[in-house]
Amino acid sequence: MIRQNSLDQWQDRYTSGTTGGTTKIFLPDVREAYKIIRKIQPTSTAVQILTGHGGFGFYLHKFKCKDSPSCKCDPNANEDIIHLLTDCPRFGRERQDLEIEIGIKVTPENLKEIMKNVEKRQSFLEFGVTIAEKIIKENKT
Ligand SMILES: [Zn+2]
User: Fold this and answer.
1) Which residues fall inside 5 Å of ion ligand 1, going by CB?
2) Are 49 and 81 in contact (CB under 8 A)?
3) Cα separation of 64 and 49, whole Å?
4) Pairing relationship of beta strands 70-71 and 74-78 according to DSSP bridges
5) Does pLDDT of 41 surpass 90?
6) In this structure, what DSSP letter does residue 40 have?
7) Domain of life, per the record (predicted)?
8) Ligand 1 mean position to 11 CA, how many Å?
9) 78 forms bridges with which residues in the sheet?
10) Tally of domains within the chain
């Protein structure tokens, strides 16, 4: 009962907290997140994807490391990881191939479902790492 109580408290704090915005899109439930995170290889790129804290234009701009937060595809779109994975037309082809493979649209609303399934998550993270590494490299120059 104490354990349940502390998990409920953790969930309340996580949900109502103002930090971890990107992580909550992928992992809105702390009990589920705990199970999933233990099975993921916590590489630098995987962590940058799941937190949104990394070499992405929007994040770099926040810390004045880049002049603009915009994506190359549209001056009105922020280059954040959710845009890159779910919306950016620069990766439309790769996203479509992934959607056919995993049988679910890669939208912000579906990310939590994709993360719950072992096979879907693995394919999705491979797709994410490819995109993230490309963008991180671009932003280094
Ligand atoms: Zn874009």
Assistant:
1) 71, 73, 88
2) yes
3) 20
4) antiparallel
5) no
6) S
7) Eukaryota
8) 32
9) 70
10) 1
